[in-house]
Amino acid sequence: MTETILTETRGRVGIVTLHRPDALNALNTTLMRELIEALEAFDADEGIGAIVLTGSERAFAAGADIKEMAAISHAEVIARDLFSTWDRLGRIRIPILAAVSGFALGGGCELAMMCDTVFASESAKFGQPEISLGVIPGLGGSQRLTRAVGKATAMDLVLTGRTIDAAEAARLGIVARVLPADSLLEETISVATGIAGRSRPAVIAAKESVNRAFESSLAEGLLFERRAFYGLFATDDRAEGMAAFIEKRPPEFRHR
Ligand code: CO8
Question: What gap in Å lies between CA 17 and CA 144, rounded to an integer?
């Protein structure tokens, strides 16, 4: 039984819904633990090939829980390494698609950016308002945001704390698709279903290769990609995928 999230499966897609309606899904310690455990459980389940992470229509998440953080001392933040549990999200191997409506602020914006791609409804609002609280982004906002949008725009957002809408977030590269609010979740699940139906070794290799671009030089990234590409020639699914194309039929991947 979870307090702060809801989970369900739709075919081969695992869905996690952030659910603290009274606090605009603010990310407290319980939510962080429950969310990471749910993601890890889906990742370990061979029946699941992709995950959709969403919130409510009003808020994906309005940031770290300020009421919880307000009482914590400097020594406690360090001793507890407050946000280190979030590092486990980076080790999830199957793709995570964020479906964002409403506020994605502070840690909520950072959580969306930790996902593998972000789809947003027209009502979504993104921002890093931590500067107004006397702090800075603490879950990669100064780093992932800068890689996504470049220095000048990252400075603009992090130093002013201003909020941007979904259209601007898409133009800047934070969001991949902007969708009507009433079809956001279904469309995201539909995309996730497509991904979950592909060959799992190829899906994992694709995710690892794109992520490698953030961790390496171009030459190293290209070598990583080439090795991963060659490695996929060892899978039955590669033979099946290419044969199916030539025979003009849908592929039947074995390793999903
Ligand atoms: N923490 C705790 N409670 C929150 C938060 C939050 N981040 N955001 C909203 N709430 C609560 C409100 O206190 C309010 O509760 P109550 O009714 O008991 O007073 C309820 O949610 C509804 O909120 P509002 O009444 O404020 O709703 P409005 O529609 O008037 O305003 C806003 C919505 C603009 C989103 C406003 O709530 C707001 O500004 N929220 C704070 C946004 C913010 O500053 N976020 C950054 C937090 S710091 C952070 O994220 C650091 C990141 C570090 C890494 C995080 C890893 C977890």
Answer: 23
